[in-house]
Amino acid sequence: MMNSKARITAIGSYVPEKRLSNYDLEKMVDTNDEWIVQRTGIKERRIADENEYTSDISYKAVKNLMERYDKSVDDVDMIIVCTLTPDFKTPSVASLVQAKLGISHAGALDLNVACAGFTYGLYVANGLVSSGLNKKVLVIGAETLSKVTDYTDRSTCILFGDGGGAVLVEYDEQQPSFLSSHLGSEGERAKSLYCTNLSETLNGEELIGSGCIVQNGREVYKWAVTTAPKGMQSVMNNAPMELKDVDWFVPHSANLRMIESICEKSGFPIEQTLYSVVNYGNTSSASIPLSLDKALREGKIKNGDKVLLYGFGGGLAYAGILINWTI
Ligand code: COA
Predict the structure, then answer these.
(1) Closest Cα partner for 255 from 233, 227, 231, 224?
(2) Nearest 5 degrees, angle CA 108-CA 65-CA 10?
(3) Which of 25, 168, 219, 252 lies at a C-alpha separation of 20 to 30 Å from 135?
(4) Torsion angle of alpha carbons 133, 138, 141, 142, nearest 10°?
């Protein structure tokens, strides 16, 4: 149990207009729609404009949240942006978002845990609010992965897309959202999935890829489908209920076949599993809020539902969180 005093009170999202379909990719690399759909379930992804960056996507996701829930963010006292594709090495995306929103005196920090970023961000926000350090925290998961994707590498360019989602986490002792969690990291496996920056070696090994995402798809796939079911169970071991009592499962939307395999191994029904991968591809830290918001717009998630979020990916790292949905 988390002894939480924090509640998720609003959600918003944004994806760029431009679509990149499997048929578009057929003209760029040696691939085809049938292979991509069969191996990943992905049909299309959204791609940011040349001059559209993660701070722009984050800002638009928060604007969407404010409009839909009639919420002001003037008194937000901490902004957490979960991303692996910041506009700059410095300043942080969170500082840029703080300025764009005109929020004065808010703390601002970026959090990079790749595809587990959003669930890590929620974990941190719950800690800050429940401890009394902050009253109102914006948690944003946003990415412009198209800017670090090698569009000559058919094994990665078919996967990634751009987008963002945001939630507001506020102090609430009566109806806390956060029921239990489980997280960790396996940095020994870092080379399975990386994107170079300043260093050209990792765990003593030379890297390739200069600034673009490189991965051993098979290794990441195997790791995810064997560790995620155990991780989900670890979240439930700390929870006041069992996995069968969970209404919705929201795994990181990396690949639909991976999601199906995780469901099969964990015994959780795929019909109660929410994902954004078919139309948005793998959007890393944005994938979970995009899946949540899509399901809300479709009228699937209702107040009082128990929702199990589970992020996993680069690091390699993972974080699961069980939510009592009460917006
Ligand atoms: N189109 C057509 N063929 C392709 C292809 C593409 N886009 N990408 C790879 N192939 C080929 C390979 O060259 C290989 O051919 P070969 O047998 O002649 O050598 C064959 O397909 C199988 O390649 P492999 O990499 O073993 O395929 P796979 O079944 O593992 O699928 C991924 C590749 C990337 C779709 C899959 O491994 C995956 O999704 N992994 C997880 C990636 C992920 O989600 N990462 C982020 C985690 S957060």
Answers:
(1) 224
(2) 85
(3) 252
(4) -130
Is the minimum distance from the CB of 282 to ligand 1 under 6 angstroms? yes
- Specify burial of residue 83 (Cβ count, 10 A radius: 0-12, 13-18, 19+): buried
* Residue in this structure with the two tokens 């260093």, named with its chain if needed: 199
40 lines ligand 1 (CB under 6 A): yes
Q: Which CATH class is domain 6-171?
A: alpha beta
One fold for 6-171 and 178-324: yes
pLDDT digits (tens, 9 = 90+) for 127-156: 999 999 999 999 999 999 999 999 999 999
Provide CB contacts within 8 A for 131, sequence distance 6+. Answer: none
pTM check: above 0.90? yes
236-287: pLDDT as tens digits: 998 989 999 999 999 999 999 999 999 999 999 999 999 999 999 999 999 9
Q: Which residues are catalytic?
A: 115, 252, 282
Query: What is the domain class of 178-324 according to CATH?
Result: alpha beta
